[in-house]
Amino acid sequence: MRRKPHLLVLFESDRPLARPARHRLDCEVVLLGRGQRRSVATRVDGKKRMLLLELPDRRLAEAHLRLQKQAGKWVLEDLGSKAGTFVNGERVAGSRVLEGGDRLEIGHVTLGFELLVPSDPASVDLGVHPADPALATALPEIEQELADLAAMALQPLPIMLRGESGVGKELLAKTVHRLSGRAGRFVPITCSALPAQLVEAELLGSKKGAYKGATEDRAGLLAASDQGTLFLDEVSDLPLPAQGALLRVLQESEVTPLGTTRPLKLDLRVVTATHRDLDSLSRQGRFRHDLLARLSGFTLRLAPLRERKSDLGLFIPALLERHFASRAHLIRFAHPATRAMFSHSWPHNVRELEQALRSAVTLAADGPIELRHLPEAVRRRRPSLSADDLRRKDELFGLLRDNGGNVSAAATAMGKARMQIQRWIKRFEIDVAALRR
């Protein structure tokens, strides 16, 4: 489907709990300025369709900027405002042609010019999702993927969530459980944390005396998931024998604890998560292909935060309300801090954003969050990556992920010296240690 230009109101530094808004530019002119509240209207001036946007920021001029479609391009013009208009951190002198992905700043408001798959309605306020906050997004493509996930939550099929560490896979797994309406518990298991010699006992359960150290009967984690949802985080870390045991349980819908012969019937729903390429691991014989087929009822790839910065205006208020519920409405941001957050690549994803906000709010006390309150990694300005750099970063990350963080293997695959790979790892801020876990 052909993408269309959209203008997104992403974040208000003075009102961080205000959610984003998305406006499809089915017009020839956009006028944006100060108003008493957020408002949007359309009118026809001669033969031109106009979109009128007002934002409640006292720093804005009543008529602050104009966007106009010219020869198939959208051109931004600052209308002589005192506060000025910034695109990607640079003040606009006169006019400027906009490109998809440009970030605009007027007063203490951050906006985005994006080329997006169109969806209805043309203008929408992106508040809390009616089904679950974790399903909210400013981006229509991700919106559809999350809607598919919500629909699948009502079915008993297994769900696999793929994505980098820290993108929120467990949060979405909990959402699936809530939406499913299943009566049992949500049982999360971090597969890499299971004791290597006792994985099967932990999963299946055991009878007293079943093995050395089994001093009492123990119900396994699978039995604890009966009528509920079993969440296997980093399922690629399950040893092959445990993979076989899990496959038998899923095929037979029953579990036989170690040291017993009588199986227990199970009614469980399985959600798995991984940052590894299970298809590649399966080809290498490191993950059972029959188990992979059993777990892949519905697969969703969660985009990293650097690919969905337009959702910062949804993540930030959600995190502030989660951790500072009683005073979230009092929190404010100095605009340099906002600019730094939208400029940062967030290599550790939403988990990194969460920790940055928690520490910043604590350091700011009763004042606004200043640039100095953010972690040094967020404050530091970096040169933007070119399209070639982004492609190289994605290729390198994929190779490191598929090879468990093995730098030498990535260097061989790319035909580069190990030293060059190390330089790229540092420049692209790839967490190799996390890929080895």
What's the short version?
With 437 residues, the chain is α+β, with helices and mostly antiparallel strands. 33% of the residues lie in helices and 23% in strands.
Quick check: average pLDDT? 90
Total strands: the figure is 22
Number of helical regions: 15
Quaternary assembly: single chain
Largest sheet: 7 strands, antiparallel
Give the strand line-up of the largest sheet.
Answer: 9-8-11-12-1-2-13
Instruction: Provide the structure class.
Output: alpha+beta
C-alpha Rg, in Å?
A: 25 Å
> What's the helical proportion of residues?
25-40%
Low-confidence stretches: none
Q: Which strand-content bin applies to the residues?
A: 15-25%
Describe the fold and architecture:
It is a single chain. This protein has 437 residues and is an alpha+beta fold. It has helices at 140-153, 169-180, 199-204, 221-224, 240-252, 278-283, 289-295, 312-323, 335-343, 349-364, 376-379, 387-402, 407-414, 418-428, 432-436; strands at residues 4-12, 21-24, 29-34, 39-45, 48-55, 65-70, 73-78, 85-87, 90-91, 95-97, 102-106, 109-116, 123-125, 159-162, 186-190, 205-206, 218-219, 229-233, 254-255, 264-265, 269-274, 298-301. The strands form five sheets. It has a seven-stranded antiparallel sheet with strand order 9-8-11-12-1-2-13, with helices on one face. The longest helix has 16 residues, at 349-364. The chain is elongated, with a radius of gyration of 25 Å. The model has no long low-confidence stretch (mean pLDDT 90).
